[in-house]
Amino acid sequence: MRKATLLLAAFCAAFAAPPSRAEEVPDVAGIYEIQGETTVAGSPDRFVITGKLVLRQKGADCTTIVEAAMRRAAGTSGPVSAALIGSGELKLSGRKLQGKAELQSLVSEVPDLDVAVPFAPRTAGPVLDATAEGEVLADGAIKLEIRSTVIGEGFTLPEGRKTIVIAKRVARSPTELKKK
Amino acid sequence: MHFRVALFAIASSLLPAALFAQDVSGPSLKTGDVITFDKLDSLERYVPKEFWDNRDFFFYEGMQLRIGAVDADYAASDAYQAATKANAGKATLGAESSLSGYVSGQPFPMDQVDCKGDPQAGVKIAWNFDHRWEGEGGSAKFIYSYWDRGERLPLYYEGKSRRVWLSGRVDPEYQATGGDVFRGEQRKRAYGIEVEAPFDSRGLTLLTYRYKGSENPASTTHNDDTWVYSPSLRRVRRISSAQRADAVAGTDFTFDDLFSFDGIIPQYDWKCLGKRELIAPMNSQVKGYPFDEEHNFGPFGLSYADDTWDLRQAVVIEFTPRAADHPYSKKVIYIDEQSMEPLYSFAYDRKGELWKLIWHNHRWSDDPGFPEYKGWPGVDPPRDLTPVSDVIVNVQTGTGNRIEYWDRSGTPFDSKGALRRYIDQNRLTKGR
Q: What is the CA radius of gyration of chain B?
């Protein structure tokens, strides 16, 4: 199962690059819903990613909170689902962003049982050191390409994996109701 | 009452500022007051600061919060109190917050626990909380719903759950075996869940054993065993859970967040932060699931503000996990000093930021409006302040869960045979 968790690889959130010149920094603070997928070159495996990204902004610097789930959409490797939680930092340079995050993966102890089923035992998978690069799109959404490595021993990740997520801002604060 | 409140205000000023920072001024509350949204300020000094800081989730236009009893008598059953007295002094603390010598009742009588002067007061209160009175344990129908900034998500789980104490029982019939239900019992309690809806999860069944050995030092603890029957797998999987304190996107509750804390005490370091007076939903005068599925839980779906709240004395304890990879850096738990029922708790992430807020509603077994909770031989009336709903709010993302089980009762099985069948893991596949 550990090997299986390795595909969790991916995703998350933090970003930016040192600005080469003074550029206007977009307002990115808020809560985002993320959707994306991880694919592995030469493999049918495909994992769908959904979840939340919270950005707290101070000028060009942001802190990030990530809570997401990965679910296997195709292929047979890895667990049927896994959760990823973590936090990181982000830097904005104009509309470009770059950053890093540390993500703890969690998988159900029952293979094929969704990690979100309440009260089903779950166990910690690998911790991922994720880096991301991306940009703020014209509509305010954020597109990220994520790469990650495993922290610590006991886990490996397959080569050729690629994770791309789109994060759409859905609220400025946690207490902003969806329905008014 | 006003005199007591005044004394409390003075006392509060001498206690840790972080815990009581909001208790500075404001009108007193009295039984019969109805607090509406325009009078919210009168609540500030009576709720934990973390709760007040996040009040937008809980208080709303149209709410009618009624102030109920002041220090109502929610003392445990006579049998539990007698066991506490009979076994006083037998329970002792060992290495790594472990417990030994416990028989039944409250391990460390609360009137002898000195929060300020005893560095072990925190862990003693934690053990009292763990061994609080709850009858046989608690049987209920439940619904588990998911919320995202006020929107109820399509995902939900509905079913039955039952918690059964297999040791430390105060019922007369188990006194010959030292409180064990079965002679030579190694289990402490069992917990079962059967999911009945939605259709694609129907039949998902879990059974967990918590062992007496879980009270040993963490290095020699006996981990929980869980059996899970998954309809999609059509078989039972057995899992030995070393650490269940994982936090997961999609469900904000962890197993150990149930009742604010349902984990293994020696896996944490504990301290007592103090005592304070506060208000909390105690003897609910509304009925949620399974009686009323349309009750108003506020715009975020996570509020008990439209109910009766009592003034209570609470003890406040804090744990820090011994495991470095635990998702929480600490959790602060507010516990009713008399009943030892959980009131509020606040979990902090590894960065030290408030992450999850948990609170509970309760019913009093002896309330005339609670006929479902019946007494039994030697334990009549049952005198159990039982939780009937839990809410968790992820204050960072605005998501949350609400669990309702308003019919929860600690009345035992009709027969020992029925209990034996319930805790038998073979039950999970029977007839499938």
A: 21
Q: E strands of B182-300, at which residues?
A: 187-197, 205-211, 224-230, 235-241, 268-281
Q: Does A119 touch chain B (CB under 8 A)?
A: yes
The answer to whether A120 touches B260, Cβ cutoff 8 Å, is no
Q: Which two tokens stand for residue A172?
A: 């400025």
In the predicted model, what is the mean pLDDT of residues B164-193?
Answer: 96
Site of tokens 């949204």: B37
A124:B243 CB<8 A: yes
Per DSSP (E only), the strands in A59-121 are 61-74, 81-93, 96-108
d(CA A130, CA B334): 37
Own/partner pairs, A154-159, CB within 8 angstroms, 24+ separation: A154/A2, A154/A126, A155/A2, A155/A3, A155/A5, A155/A6, A155/A125, A155/A126, A156/A3, A156/A6, A157/A6, A157/A7, A157/A9, A158/A6, A158/A7, A158/A9, A158/A40, A158/A43, A158/A77, A159/A41
Q: Which of B241, B249, B396 sits opposite A68 (nearest CB)?
A: B249
Q: Is A59 on the interface with B (CB under 8 A)?
A: no
Q: Give the right CATH number for A25-171 from 3.40.50.2300, 2.40.160.20, 3.40.640.10, 2.30.110.10.
A: 2.40.160.20
User: Which residue has 């703890």 as its token pair?
Assistant: A104
CA distances for B23 relative to A150, B13, B30, B320, angstroms: 47, 8, 17, 26
Q: Rounded CA gap, B281 and A136, in Å?
A: 45
Q: What is the pLDDT of residue B330?
A: 96
**Mean of all residue pLDDT scores within chain B:** 90
Question: How high is the mean pLDDT of chain A?
Answer: 81
B51, pLDDT greater than 80: yes
Cα B196 vs. chain centroid, distance in angstroms?
24
Say if B253 is an interface residue toward chain A (CB within 8 Å).
yes
Give yes or no for a contact between B361 and B388, defined as CB atoms under 8 angstroms apart.
Answer: yes
Interface of B with A in 362-381 (CB under 8 A): none
Residue of B nearest to A177 (CA): B149
Query: Which chain A residues contact residue B226 at CB under 8 A?
Result: 109, 121
Q: Which chain A positions have a beta carbon within 8 Å of B264's beta carbon?
A: none
In this prediction, residues A148-166 reach a mean pLDDT of: 78
What are the structure tokens assigned to B198, written together?
């939605």
Q: What is the ipTM of this complex?
A: 0.82
Residue-wise burial string across A128-160, b where 16 or more C-beta atoms lie within 10 A, e elsewhere: bbbbbbbbbeeeebbbbbbbbebeeeebebbee
| A-B C-beta contacts closer than 8 Å | 116
In order of A25, A104, B9, B256, B365, the CA distances from B241 in angstroms are 47, 18, 45, 12, 33
For residue B381, whether the previous peptide bond is cis, meaning omega lies within 30 degrees of 0, is yes
Is a pLDDT exceeding 60 seen at residue A17?
no
Q: Report the C-alpha dihedral over residues B375, B379, B385, B388, rounded to 10 degrees.
A: -40
Would you mind telling me the total number of residues written for chain A in this entry?
180
End-to-end CA distance of chain B: 59
Nearest to A6 by CA among A164, A149, A165, A162: A149
List pLDDT tens digits, range B386-406. Answer: 999 999 999 999 999 999 999
Count of CB atoms within 10 A of residue B35's CB? 21
A118 and B228: CB-CB below 8 Å? no
What are the residues whose beta carbons fall under 8 Å from the beta carbon of B250, sequence distance 6 or more? Answer: A69, A83, A115, A116, B146, B155
